Amino acid sequence: MTVPSNVLVVGGGPAGSVTATLLAQEGFDVRLVESRQFPRYHIGESLTPSTRHVLQLIGVADKLDAGGFQVKRGGAFRWGDDSWVIDWSKQFGDHVSTWQVDRAAFDALLLDNAREKGVRVEHGIAAKSVDFDEDGRPRAVHCVREGEGPVTLDGFDFLIDASGRAGLLSAQHFRNRQQHRFFRNVALWSYWENARLLPDSPEGGVNVISSPKGWYWVIPLHGGRTSIGLVTHKDVFARDRRAHGSLDDLYRSVIAESDIVSDLVADATCVAEARAETDYSYVADRFCGPGYMLIGDAACFLDPLLSTGVHLALYGGLVGAAALASVRRGELPEAEGLTFFEAAYRRAYTRALALVSSMYETYQGKDDFFWTADRLVREDAGAERGARDSVSFGEIIAGMSDIREATDARTRVLTDRLADEALRVQKEATAGDPDVGEPSFDVLRTEPHRDDSLLGLRVVTEPRLGLRPADPA
After folding, report:
1. What sections of the sequence does the record tag as coiled-coil (predicted)?
2. pTM score, whole prediction
3. Those residues with Cβ within 8 angstroms of residue 378's Cβ, 6 or more apart along the chain or in another chain
């Protein structure tokens, strides 16, 4: 039986750098290759409080606190005719907060920290293909080194694919990604100075504002800068793009279309060229196999409505590293560790998918969102719709429900209900739309499972990172 000790990580974004650091801290020999030079620009500035939990484990949370990043304590929503505020400090305590970050600086900090913790980091190496042995384990990765040409990386016994949307394994080798046809969107954004937030926003809170074309984000950054963007369907974007001479013209047009957003930028100055990027949502039909894991956007991507991208990347890194650490110490077989990783990670994605899907559904009021959130978190939520509070909604968008389920032995995970809710809301939202068809979520159900407590295991961080049997609740 192969016991992993030498790990190759492909990709130096948050998923790759954090997973590599956690493994290095547990005694693994870790090599990380990244195609680009850092720092490099990346969208996705808004983090969730769950990330603080992981970033404390690798020793960078204090650096972020001291680094001048904008503190974030929740968000303010203007959706349809409703408005509500999520203030995590008031709901869960003053210790529950996170950051709005400059991703170029944030990602570089994480990768530098990986290097400091013993990870061998190499830039300018683009992974292109993978060879597998007869047992289905990866044995070599064929790459191109910048300025030199082809190079083959081998000598590892475990591969972490954190290659992002490029998808070294899921998109290029296995070709097993399922796109969610419901989320065929494009993001259009730029940056402003001196923009305002909605008046009831918590400190550093993201503003989410619905539109007939989709939804806007307003994200305050340090130094008085604000990221403002619109997410809209690809067909709407293509139609509007043809009607405007430039991307900047289109961007200014969509800002002007919202009275709320226009008011927030009335005294502000746009200080950057507009950018656009497709953000089609997808999920691989498996996140792991003998000798490999997919983490971050390499495994799955979801519409950014609830800022789940970095949360899913770091959560996947946490549960993946915990599983591998226990496998290396002989505490459980690799297959069992991988099954836990697959179950925990896929359920986190499914919960986020269900809640985001409900917000794209035909609008029935904020209580319907809160009802869906209750059903995704609470075993006793009940089937009756009606007035609900926002606690479960706030917990999910904080990423706290995923961390709690993975680490708390008393937690029950509502396995089938998560996939059922994702299917229900997308069926309701797409009823009668011939372009979407019948949604299918077979890949969201993880089998086999012993019970609703994540295969009878949980993540522990003391005295060592790993998996332990979950005591009966």
Report:
1. none
2. 0.93
3. 392
